[in-house]
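re: ur msg from earlier - yeah i can do the nicotinamide-adenine-dinucleotide complex, just paste it... oh wait u already did. ok heres what im feeding in:
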Amino acid sequence: MKVLITGGLGYIGSHTAVELSSKGHECFIVDNLINSNRDVFNRIEMLGKHPISLMMVDLLDQKALADVFRRFKFDAVIHFAGLKAVGESVKNPLLYYEHNLMSTLNLLKEMKKANVKKLVFSSSATVYGDLSTPPITEDAPTSIINPYGQTKLMVEEILTDLAQSDPEWSTALLRYFNPIGAHPSGLLGENPNGIPNNLMPYLTQVAKGKREYLSIFGNDYPTHDGTGVRDYIHVMDLAEGHVKALIYLENNTGAHTFNLGSGRGYSVLDLIKTFEEVNNVHIPYRIVDKRPGDIAVSYADSSKAERELGWRATRGLGEMCEDAWRWEKGLEKSVDKTME
Ligand code: NAD
Ligand code: UFG
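and the outut:
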């Protein structure tokens, strides 16, 4: 398939591009580098099996996007591009509504004009908020607690309306749980700007000595050790989920929602312990106040994805920790050095 990947230089997009290319698909990436860099492209090309095209295009630039659709005829689109920092979305909601909604509307208009009607969308488990009792199924009620989550749910609704209005549209709304880990080569991984908001990138920076200690946000949650429990999923498992979703869309029209998680919940302390064991490093930590908006426990029921996509997460927490650490350790090296 010829696949357009928006945000293909980002964390999840880059791993998915490698996976698609390895499976023989032709990949075309558009990215405006707002949260990535061009070096990632060289690494995707090294790891993939087929040449990949890169276009530096901002999805907010409708004309430039129209040009992309004029130049190439795609079979499907995977839409990763967007802003994703929850805290920033609370401080600057207009930025998030404008960025995440306008870019998606621009994309959908161009897809419609070009008669490309297969789309995989990056949604998030954040749409479940704090209403549901895990394991969370796709029909659990949604409850939005921040503007970022609102943009995800709004796009899901737009895609559902679109599929209802025109039976030729096929869309997969993938609700990711907590993606962590990195490509096993150590060449691709998560590289957030500034102070990391999420647990794994913060933890790897502590392991490296870049930060003094990890702050654990609360230890009196109703969980087995008092710290928050999440469903961590290896980014390579997630990448494989996107390939399966694309195949599914070949034979299934309509809008389809899938949880992508491992189905297992681990606490912050579980993650630290596993990271220390498999990597033989020490992680100093301190217990601090809870982070506002955090929930105690979240993990997926991903049986629908297993049943309908033929997908399930296969990589365990130890592998996620090993791969994340290999990536962090190699971060400063240049591409050429890393290949030596
Ligand atoms: P990321 O920030 O690493 O990647 C997003 C990419 O999109 C970046 O390369 C960025 O430069 C690009 N981009 C952003 N706005 C753009 C625009 N207007 N035009 C062109 N390119 C643009 O994020 P990620 O972690 O890879 O996440 C990918 C998607 O998955 C996002 O939509 C995110 O909201 C969603 N998601 C991520 C997580 C997570 O924990 N990482 C969890 C659930 C959902
Ligand atoms: N945590 C710490 N210390 C840190 C960072 C996190 O103790 O420095 C804890 C949190 O309290 C939580 C767990 O580690 O219990 C995981 O936190 P993350 O910030 O890594 O992930 P969240 O579950 O809060 O949210 C992430 C993304 C959201 C996404 C959600 C579901 O940030 O955008 O997963 O996919 F919506």
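cool cool. Residues 334-340 have pLDDT under 50 and may be disordered. ping me if u need the other ligands too
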